[in-house]
Amino acid sequence: MKLIFRVCILMFAVLAHAVPRISPQDPAPYTKTMQSTKLFTEGLGKGGIRGRLEGVDGEDIAGIFAVSRDRQKVNYDAGLGGGTAGSDRKMRFSVHIADIGEDNSFSFERLQEGIYDLVVLLDHRYYNGIVLGRGDSTLTEKDTQDITAKIKAINPYFNEKRLERMWGTTGEDGVARVLGQEMRTLPVTLADGTLHPEIQTRVLRLFFMQDISAKGTAAWSVEETREIVRQEVGPPDVKGMLPEHFNKKLSGIVVIDEVEDIGVVRLQ
Q: Staple 201 to which of 27, 50, 182, 184, CB 3.0 to 4.6 Å?
């Protein structure tokens, strides 16, 4: 009887735990380090997106993000995947973070004109409407293997990587886009030198690849990456890779110069 009671208490504690909400202004929940405030794009436009989520099924929402389908002129600082030094206006893929209400409503403000895909990060999974390209992918099996190997070889801080979806065109001057999930599951070292094996780091990232074939031999390079979100997870949180789910209602939202109301988005 005592064992059953303890198990029930443990289950209640796990269910009661709220996954930390992604907040650019606050330090990371477990290491207390500050992430770059330039990860998310500064709003420069007059448009916006609003809606409300259904089908969350009791899961906590860690964050909702809008990703521009094409490059935009943004205020940009180095160190987030573009490789350009200094602070200036650059053509870059935008990522915006939503304000989230208690009823799972959400809103984005000051978006530039463009097409946006949304990403919804929950504590056990994530949904997205990211479209990587137009038409069918023409990548060969060899292209896919080479691109996968190239991505897994870069940025060794993340010791585990999973490529969710890939699209591209094969041949000379080919291009490819990849949605990936990266994990740091090795112990995290803090500034004071202490090791913390109980803390992991999860990143959702877009990879933009370019074919640099020479004399007919296919070769792929990483032209650019764009981090969508970086999430620190601790002992109470779900560890490892999260399942990815595509949801068409989160895809291809056209924003011009006013707020686009997409209504209720049912996740499942």
A: 184
Nearest residue to 60 (alpha-carbon basis) of 37, 29, 36, 93: 29
Helical H segments across the chain, by residue range: 2-16, 141-153
| Both tokens assigned to 45 | 């436009």
pLDDT digits (tens, 9 = 90+) for 91-118: 889 999 999 999 999 999 999 999 999 9
Residue found by looking up tokens 């979100």 in the block: 229
Q: What is the pLDDT of residue 84?
A: 42
Number of domains in the chain: 1
> CA–CA separation, 108 vs 22, rounded Å?
15
Distance CA(258)–CA(197), nearest Å, equals: 46
- The pLDDT > 90 percentage for the chain reads 69
Which residues, at least 6 apart from 4, have a Cβ–Cβ distance to it below 8 Å? none
Helix (H, G, I), strand (E, B) or coil at 171: coil
**Closest listed residue to residue 50, CA positions, set 104, 124, 129:** 104
Residue-number span of the structural domain to which 115 is assigned: 2-266
Q: How far apart are CA 162 and CA 165, in angstroms?
A: 9
Q: What digits encode the pLDDT tens for the residues 67-93? A: 999 999 877 554 444 444 444 568 889
| β-bridge mates for residue 99, sequence order | 107
Dihedral angle of Cα 240, 83, 85, 202, to the nearest 10 degrees = -10
